[in-house]
Specification:
With 161 residues, the chain is mainly α. 47% of the residues lie in helices and 2% in strands.
């Protein structure tokens, strides 16, 4: 299409592209980022999980070595502004250091599922019955035999006759 064709299109049918947000959303200083996070008792792992990054990345943001970009930067800035503007929770402050989880004994009722940290323990991740194991082994053997047969058919010399 050339430029003369564009001039023919009426202005009412042209698509209007909204103005983009500024490229750099202001962030608080790195020390303030860490102070706000620690004030709320959040770990770098929790913040990282919220923004889809690693805890090392969050620590790098808080040290000032790197900074988030794009939509993640805008979301992180809004997150920090929200934490700074909100009153602190009234519950006891969480320790900043690494947490060590220890199982607490839970009284078992007859017929109740066992729990660890309040979550039910459901047993092995994927129990497979013996019948299914035999069937899977037969299928695997069939794949190997068929593969060997095809290999021999492809690589065998043609009969001269």
């Amino acid at each position: 299409m050339n430029s003369t064709n564009l001039a023919v299109v009426p202005s009412s049918t042209r698509t209007v592209i909204p103005a983009r947000a500024p490229r750099t959303t202001p962030l608080p200083p790195p020390a303030e980022r860490r102070r706000v996070r620690e004030q709320w008792g959040l770990t770098p792992h929790q913040v990282a999980a919220a923004f889809g990054v690693t805890a090392a990345t969050v620590r790098s943001w808080e040290a000032g070595r790197t900074a988030p970009v794009g939509a993640r930067r805008a979301a992180y800035a809004q997150f920090l502004r929200g934490l700074a503007a909100s009153p602190l929770p009234r519950s006891r402050p969480r320790p900043v250091g690494p947490r060590v989880l220890t199982p607490t004994p839970v009284a078992m009722r007859p017929g109740a599922a066992p729990t660890v940290y309040g979550r039910p323990v459901l047993g092995p991740p994927d129990p497979v019955c013996a019948r299914r194991v035999r069937r899977l082994r037969r299928v695997a053997l069939g794949v190997v035999v068929w593969g060997a047969f095809v290999h021999l058919m492809v690589t065998a010399p043609l009969p001269l006759g």
